[in-house]
Design brief:
The structure is a single chain. The chain is of the alpha/beta class. It has 12 helices and 8 strands. Strand 3, helix 4 and strand 4 form a beta-alpha-beta unit. The longest helix has 18 residues. The radius of gyration is 17 Å and the shape is globular. The two termini are 24 Å apart. It binds phosphoenolpyruvate (PEP). Phosphoenolpyruvate binds next to strand 8.
């Protein structure tokens, strides 16, 4: 019975693969990425969401096959106003986007964004009709000090406190020590944290939310390690940085196919 239940949950949670281009690319390189992504489409049984830098959101969206969705890498917590350099969910919706990444470790640790700010942004983005890839993850020193569970739970608790609608959230577990380092989490390390997060959702939201919410892994995912990670029932997809700029990204999209 438990085997068929986990099979069922995989069916309930559509595999989703995001590509975070970070602050990379220009029109010419984006043309190349669009070329291999469109050549690989249509993608079956998997949702594909790429995230270009803000100046290229519309450029990429207009060139990509309809089946490849586009997410912003960030947004602010209000609709408009005197917030130089920011972009609002209302603006993202206005140009036809449905997704935004919030709480990426670079936003948290390079730009100093707090748990409460990331939660407020998430709440506002959802209220404006967007879905959110919400990133969490511990730093190396936090893992080594035995705080992995606490850190991830604390980052998620900020969403619980604001009573966010979990049906609009994909959680990306991205251990900071694995991002851009070539040091991918082992399947056992990733599986352990994904299971903790699902238990957290069952306790703080409901068993249904835990069953239905997609939890994806990010941190040095490549075409070589994605198949093994993708076999795990609690890994519902990936958020990919470096490898999402290369043709191998299509192999990662198809990790479960
Ligand atoms: C990321 O930026 O979200 C990421 C996981 O990067 P990389 O795949 O390059 O480690």
């Amino acid at each position: 019975l438990s085997n068929s239940l986990s099979f069922l949950s995989i069916m309930v949670r559509k595999f989703v693969v995001g590509g975070n281009w970070k602050m990379n690319g220009d029109k010419a390189t984006i043309d190349g990425i669009v070329g291999f992504l469109n050549a690989g489409a249509p993608y079956n049984n998997v949702e594909v969401i790429v995230s270009p830098p803000a100046p290229y959101l519309l450029y990429a969206k207009e060139k990509l096959n309809e089946g490849v969705l586009v997410a912003a890498q960030n947004c602010y917590k209000v609709a408009k106003g005197a917030f130089t350099g920011e972009q609002s969910p209302a603006m993202l919706k206005d140009i036809g986007l449905k997704w935004v990444i919030i709480g990426h470790s670079e936003r948290r640790h390079v730009f100093g964004e707090s748990d409460s700010l990331t939660a407020e942004k998430t709440q506002h983005a959802i209220a404006e009709g967007l879905s959110v890839i919400f990133c969490v993850g511990e730093k190396l020193e936090e893992r080594e000090a035995g705080h992995t569970k606490d850190v991830n739970f604390r980052q998620l608790q900020a969403l619980v406190d604001l009573k966010v609608d979990w049906s609009k959230v994909v959680i990306a577990y991205e251990p900071v020590w694995a991002i851009g380092t070539g040091k991918v989490a082992s399947p056992a390390q990733a599986d352990e944290v994904h299971k903790w997060i699902r238990e957290f959702l069952a306790q703080k939201a409901s068993p249904e939310v835990a069953e239905q919410t997609r939890i994806i892994y990010g941190g040095s995912v490549t075409a070589d390690n994605c198949v093994e990670l993708g076999k795990l029932g609690d890994i519902d997809g990936f958020l990919v940085g470096g490898a999402s700029l290369k043709p191998d990204f299509v192999k990662i999209i198809n990790a479960r196919n």
